[in-house]
Automatic annotation (TrEMBL):
Extent of Basic and acidic residues compositional bias: 278-292
Every R3H domain range: 224-289
Stretch forming the signal peptide: none
Pfam families found in the cross-reference section: PTPase (PF25516), R3H (PF01424)
Region described as Disordered: 268-292
Protein name stated in the entry: R3H domain-containing protein
UniProt source species: marine sediment metagenome
Gene Ontology terms for molecular function: nucleic acid binding
Amino acid sequence: AQAARTIAERGVQLVGTAHGNTLENLMMNPTLADLIGGIQTVTLGDEEAKRRGTQKSILERMSPPTFGIVVEIQDWDKVAIHPDVSEAVDAILRGQPTATETRWLDKAGEVRVEREMPITSTQKTIRGKRLARENNLHKLYLFGINRGRLEQIVKERRLSLDIVNNLSDANLFITSKSYYRRRPQKVRDAEAANLPIYVLKSNTPPQIRQLLNTIYPTESTSKADSLRLALSEAEEAVSKVKTGQEAVELSPQSAYIRRLQHLIAKRNELSSQSTGKDSNRRVRIYKEGTKV
């Protein structure tokens, strides 16, 4: 990503491919995010935060994107186009719908074009993340996942989901990282059907719980709210360390959120490190030279 940015800054026009189904996938990937401008945390003043109606710590695009246009390959003969990556990324970070152009070949071989303009709504409609929440019942197709272990955790948490045996009946495809890398026929079939795919790093209870936390967020706290709370916690930790506290250990978070918390510490000239394992991995912020 860094090499591509360097080449683009020299005025060379680039065409490239990246792993991911949607623009949001690139934004959530710490390595590839630089291709669409990078994501950073910004601390607003009290008046600006009040004017925007947001937390003081928000996410913003760091710089101009390396690529001005993003094309999502949705099917063999269908693509979705984001004609202005800067505007699309900014809109997604603010929780707003984006303008998308969809092109496909009809039966006569003609190219058809449909433009989806943003619709003002209080409901977030980021494509690919709704996962059939309309009826609040997820139909999962498991591939390489321990079904008994999943059902046991679901039972413990008193959740409601349906594990189906036919790919055509599913609205979410679940597999492990090792299976996804080999890209067997079932994975290719799911992608061809434009079915959302959730990849577990490993077939362990912590990873399964993280999956359930993703598709069944708590009613009181949405994913965006959780992110804001995590960033606010990091800001508060920075203030405590600067005022004399030796170190502050934050709540366990995902790898992406931990990366943002590390950036907050670095921006404030403090040291940080991740400790713990699996779902208990968290960030510790401290002054350089402090024993950790």
